[in-house]
Design goal:
mainly alpha, Rna Polymerase Sigma Factor, Chain: A, elongated, 2 domains, Arc Repressor Mutant, subunit A, 0% strand
Length: 207
């Protein structure tokens, strides 16, 4: 965990810092951070939209609206208590955008695109979600984890990544990995720790 994250933990409910590298990058308007955000959480937002009843093209439009809103509001995100997560904040923005979409349809139902679309949108209007918290979904969590891993993989040398992957993910013993990669066992363990620390830093504040 980063020093900022440790300080936030020590400060308890009063902590308001954004310790994640990704989140800090968003505040700094860093293009790489924004690209990673969309890559990591875009599919999750899309899935939330689809589960709410939106058709694929409508879901894609709402996803764009969500991230435009994030760009405008990122400075307002605060972690004042442990339960304040970026994913929860993103969920609430997504819910608001879905509701706005439904309201726009209610005002202009004839523009929905045919009888089938009208029926689907009527169902969506009935099924509007009022949940204030992001749903607990292991599949979404795994998707986020894999997307973050993909986004940081190129930042590590091949052998470092292989040592981490084979030890942390595949469960191979360090002695076997060391022999295969021409490394010492301690170097294998250090490689694993390096990637894990980076992963924790990227995920800190999202969940």
């Amino acid at each position: 965990m980063s020093a900022a994250a440790s300080n936030a933990s020590a400060n308890g409910a009063g902590a308001s810092s954004i310790s994640s590298t990704m989140l800090q990058g968003l505040r700094d308007q860093d293009a790489v951070a924004w690209s990673r955000l969309v890559k990591v959480l875009g599919p999750v937002v899309y899935e939330w939209c689809r589960r709410s009843g939106l058709q694929p093209s409508d879901a894609e439009n709402v996803v764009q609206e969500v991230f435009l809103s994030v760009a405008v509001k990122i400075e307002t995100f605060r972690r004042e208590k442990a339960s304040d997560t970026f994913r929860g904040w993103l969920w609430r923005i997504t819910q608001n955008k879905i509701r706005n979409y439904v309201q726009r349809w209610k005002k202009h139902p004839d523009g929905a695109g045919g009888t089938d679309a009208k029926v689907q949108l009527q169902q969506l209007a009935v099924c509007e979600s009022s949940d204030s918290e992001a749903p607990s979904d292991p599949n979404s969590d795994c998707l986020i984890l894999h997307r973050v891993l993909e986004s940081i993989r190129e930042d590590f040398e091949h052998d470092t990544w292989q040592a981490f992957w084979r030890m942390a993910v595949q469960g191979h013993p360090s002695a076997e990995i060391a022999a295969d990669l021409g490394m010492t066992q301690e170097a294998v363990r250090q490689a694993k720790r390096r990637v894990v620390r980076r992963l924790q830093n990227e995920l800190d504040g999202i969940f």
